Amino acid sequence: MTPVSILLWSVLLLPLTGAALGMLCPSVRAVMALVRAGVLLTAAAAAGCIWAVHAGPAVETAWEWLRLDALSAYHLGVMMLVFTLSSLYLPGYFAAETASGHFTVAQARRFGALWFGALAAMGVVLLSNNIGIMWVGIEATTLVTAFLICIHRTPASLEAMWKYLIICSVGVAFAFMGTLLAGAAAEHLHLEGAQMLLWSRLRENAAGLDPALMKVAFLFLLVGYGTKAGLAPMHSWLPDAHSQAPGPVSALFSGFMLNASLYCIMRYLPLVDAATAHTGWGPRLVLLLGLVSIGVAAVFILFQTDLKRLLAYSSVEHMGIIAVGLGLGGPGILAALFHTLNHALCKPMAFFAAGRLGQMYGTHDTARLSGCLRGAPVWGRALFGSLLAVIGVAPFAVFMSEFMILRAAARNGAWWTLGIFLAGLAVVFIGVLRQAVNMAWGEPVAVPKEERAGTMDRVLIVGALGALLVLGVWFPEVLSGMLDRASNIVEGTQ
């Protein structure tokens, strides 16, 4: 076994080990320390894998069932970024609840095990070369993360958990049917046994896949994985789950779990496109869902008075933006992947701020959070800055990736797409900015608890927002090369 293969296995086994050890921790503090250490160790192993793929070809192990190429390596990096930020934020978020007795040792143990379980499940999604096991990973994320929503059991959180479980389970069942049909489309290729479900084998023979079966399969897959990704109109679970989950869990959901499901759709795009003779049938469907998601999110954002639900609908919008880029193809795919990173940087920070402000004010009602810059200077600034980044104010990197998608639409002559895209973004911009200005500088109507913002909190805020500013004005060569290679895989040219 090569060193890179060992690192690949480590990305999966370290979280599982952490989940087991977490159940033995004697205190909340010990659980938080274990989570930090375990996630950082996993991030180090992932960095080694990413560097190996960046410098060379794809890596395979376990009889080709585990595979890391440029596309999965890029998403692995984004995943570890979100988990690292969220894990560093955890102790500060739960400190006050631990002191008041609202977060017990038993809850902390359960939370730590589920947190590591979510990391392992998402790792399976990214590292699996078998499309069946990739589906199992998505199903596992549903089961594990559902219980993170109701770590604090209230009627509202339990309702949100069951809604999430039921809707996403139905969606994942659709994805299961699509996975079976995709395997059936390869039946006449005479691949041996499990090779019919290996993505790399399907990609090599994609032009020979049964086009009718692949079309039906992709419809099931798009609805199934699109449900878990929060694409409209299958998004109805998302606002409730985000509004009821603890701040770090909402950050994890929005920052990467939605992207993990979009990643699965990306894996099938080159297969269905080659099987349908590159007619653009699959990408057009993705583009349509993307535009619908942006439009639905824009309408609902205008009427939101709950901060976390506002951010949830913003996530629907951003998943739609990524889908539009994927559907446009070519430079649009690269822009979509870049937007994935930008969204993973700014949205967790917004949920971090929303979570801490919610603890201080006892509510997420935007009217009650009015004047939070005076009542909570650190988290108020973090919220305002992250909201500006989320809606694409220049020079934040989100503006750049959205501009790249607009340019791709113009180059393709997709003027209707460009018009709908711009209109949706404009409505979201106005709706979110109106709320952000009122929360920041409005007349205070509530007196918050004393603000607690430690050194780590300030480092996270400055680091994330600083990175978004840097990426908005400078495109590192290393990142550009990785995005090029990853977009080529989605487009089917590599």
Describe this structure in a few short sentences.
The protein has 494 residues and is mainly α.
Q: What do these coordinates show?
A:
The protein has 19 helices and two strands. With 494 residues, it is an all-alpha fold. It has a domain of 214 residues. A two-stranded antiparallel ribbon has the order 1-2. A hairpin with a 4-residue loop joins strand 1 and strand 2. Helix 2 packs parallel to helix 4, helix 4 runs antiparallel to helix 5 and helix 10 runs antiparallel to helix 13. The mean pLDDT is 94.
Tell me the span between the first and last alpha carbons.
26 Å
> What spatial form do the alpha-carbon principal axes imply?
globular
Question: Which value, in Å, is the CA radius of gyration?
Answer: 21 Å
Number of strands: 2
Low-confidence stretches: none
Describe the main β-sheet briefly.
2 strands, antiparallel
Share of residues in helices: over 70%
Secondary-structure element series = HHEEHHHHHHHHHHHHHHHHH
- What's the helix count? 19
Spatial strand order of the main sheet: 1-2
Helix-strand category:
mainly alpha
Q: How much is the average pLDDT? A: 94
Strand content is: under 5%
